[in-house]
Amino acid sequence: MQQYSWNQLDNDTIVKSLDYSAFSERSSGIPKQFYPFFRTTHTRYDRDLTLRYKNISYSAKIIWKKPNNTRAVISWNQNLSSLMKFIFPSWASINPHDKDSKLGLVFHKTENEDSYEISFKRDNSEMTFGHIEGINEGHIFANRNLLRLSGIHAPPEAGIWGRQDEGSASIVLSGGYADDIDDWDYILYTGQGGRDPSSGKQIKDQEFTLGNKGLQLNKEYNHLVRVIRGYQVEYGPDEGYRYDGLYYVTGYERVKGKEGFLVCRFHLQKEKEILSPEDTEHPISPSERIEYRGNRLKRNVKYAEQIKEMYNYMCQVCNVFLKTPTKGYGIAEAAHIQAMGKPHEGPDTKANMICLCPNHHAQFDRFSFYIEPETLEIVGLDEFKGRSIKINSKHKVKSKYFEYQKQQYLKSN
């Protein structure tokens, strides 16, 4: 149900699209259709609410506007307004009364009728990897539009939400390909492309481009992908689309499919067995949610891919191109010169990267050799003694990172 800038995703969740006044006035009128969600009637007096975000409480109120108490307004305190402005730094550029704003404040019911969990919906043009805040594994959406509004899966029709220079954030299983296999914790997923839009049949080969290339990057950079099952597949819900959690891309290939054309296939494995299909017909409550928590370093995939493309997937040490079945793509890695993370704390920038093959990347990370900062000479590998790496004129590497790596080599050798 949608009314003006409010959209009800299900019985327990509502999204309020945020226009300029939501930030400047810290309030919004509530359409009558949504009074029941806020347990509000025309006869109720003003009442206090608690809005909780990540275990922090913010005070709010439902106020009946005079005369005649005919219109309910929800308002929130300055602290929540400051948080919203921090989360959405572009808020000042939103038009007043923009009911189609892509930024949203999400309300989730709790057992306490005066308390709501809140989360934030961001612009779907920016892909978000991993769980979407406020959406529980097992949550069922009535249609693809509600999937889009929630931020779980933005494309209205495509099965993959991904980009070939960033990765893929989500996929939808809807029974479209003959080669798909779904064993719940293991999925063999056919990529996108090559289908006739009218008949749905495969009429040409698929390529590792767009979302397919994005899923390749998920494998290379160990990014998790959200999986949504539609009502069309065996393990899907009776109706709508269900969010079934996070999966790793463990492998991929391009092979001849059952319809005679080359298809891109991806092997997916569930991150961990949290729920079985029988457990997910009804969403679990916020208090029961099992979240993925970890300390993985988030790498900028776009920068890493740009470095590899700049050097045509050739190692800067050995100048070897390791061929793959995908034309034009080799096996190469963007190596940080000053390593990321503790204790080195190197930045994730192109100025701190070089392109290496897997072997020389492993040796470089273990301080088996270093690159002389001034001359770019390779030091420590006998087979490359006296040779220097070449730097592309468009690649502005900073020598201080080579100096840091050199000092680590000297400590270790």
Layout: helices, strands, pairs:
Elements: E1 2-3, E2 6-10, E3 13-17, H1 20-24, E4 27-29, E5 47-53, E6 56-65, E7 71-76, H2 78-87, E8 104-109, E9 115-121, E10 140-141, H3 144-150, E11 160-163, E12 167-173, E13 181-182, E14 186-190, H4 210-221, E15 225-230, E16 241-256, E17 262-270, H5 301-310, E18 333-336, E19 353-356, H6 358-365, E20 370-371, E21 378-379, H7 399-412
Parallel strand pairs: 5-9, 12-15
Antiparallel strand pairs: 1-2, 2-3, 3-8, 4-7, 5-6, 6-7, 8-9, 10-16, 11-12, 13-14, 14-17, 15-16, 16-17, 18-19, 20-21
Explain the overall architecture.
With 413 residues, this protein is α+β, with helices and mostly antiparallel strands. The chain has three domains: 2-121, Beta Barrel (At1g16640 B3 domain), CATH 2.40.330; 140-284, Roll (PUA domain-like), CATH 2.30.280; 301-412, no CATH class. It starts with a strand and ends with a helix. The longest helix is centred in the last third of the chain and has 14 residues, at 399-412. The chain has helices at 20-24, 78-87, 144-150, 210-221, 301-310, 358-365, 399-412, and strands at residues 2-3, 6-10, 13-17, 27-29, 47-53, 56-65, 71-76, 104-109, 115-121, 140-141, 160-163, 167-173, 181-182, 186-190, 225-230, 241-256, 262-270, 333-336, 353-356, 370-371, 378-379. Strands 1-2-3-8-9-5-6-7-4 form a nine-stranded mixed sheet. Strands 10, 11, 12, 13, 14, 15, 16 and 17 form an eight-stranded mixed sheet that branches. A two-stranded antiparallel sheet has the order 18-19.
